[in-house]
Amino acid sequence: MLADTVPIYPLYALLFVSTGLSDAQVSALFAIWSTVAVVAEVPFGAFADRFSRKWSVVGAGVCQAAGYALWTALPGFTGFAVGFVLWGVGGAMSSGAVEALLHDGLAAVGASSHFGRVLGRVTAVGLLAQLPAALLAVVLFSAGGFALVGWVSVATCLGAALVATRLPETPRPESSGYLALLRSGLAETVRAVDVRLAVLVVAMLAAVDAFEEYFPLIAQDWGVPVALVPLATLAIPLAGAGGGGVGRHAAAVGRAAGWFGRAAGCDGRGRAPVRARGRGGVLRRVPAGVGERGGAVAVADHR
Fold it and tell me: Considering the chain, what percentage of its residues have pLDDT values greater than 70?
């Protein structure tokens, strides 16, 4: 939960435009972030599987903190771009690693059948953590502007990384070398139809999710003061948390989850776990769209 209680989340788009960046430059930053996150997913997922999932989560927090530190210390297109690269790498390091740690821990006590339900709860709690983050963002921005919000976000991520060092990690059999594991993962993504289609579905959901990043800018255009934008966008995490809860129940009941598995091209036997999670949903026409997306990603994570 601490890793998601980051006050800069609802304000970073406004930070970008406050430095004079154009809409095209802001979009370019989001494109850099998305590209790095997608490209780094498999290499860093293989790294976590080969070496340590716990320390991948720790490294993710450090990378994210470094990115926010750059945004705060060197505001400008270059600093923002490098910060997004670090955040994208950090997201790739933790994506899947947290779920794998959770699954291994449950399996160690004979409770692996509860994985879908517990994962849905974790997803929902992570999204609900953005509620105190929004309140914190309002207070911090009012007291010290973007700089204070940025440095507190750095501290929050480092705190989450410190907490992650205490996560238990179930011992695993020695696996093959990193390069062999990486080649195997890439080959299965290309060869297996169920994996390929599942990855495509989640990639499309992530593309839709990108609309969320523009909503603080839209709120500002509607005349919402910067300090109150985090409150104006609270419907996003609330709807996403609702979707995560729906996904939890769908994942817990195989028949309920089967529709998504078939739609994604999965074979219904729980194969092809997808390493992908989003941070919230999409507030396009109504928050219901966010809930649907949150539920779909929760089920995709489970599968």
Answer: 65
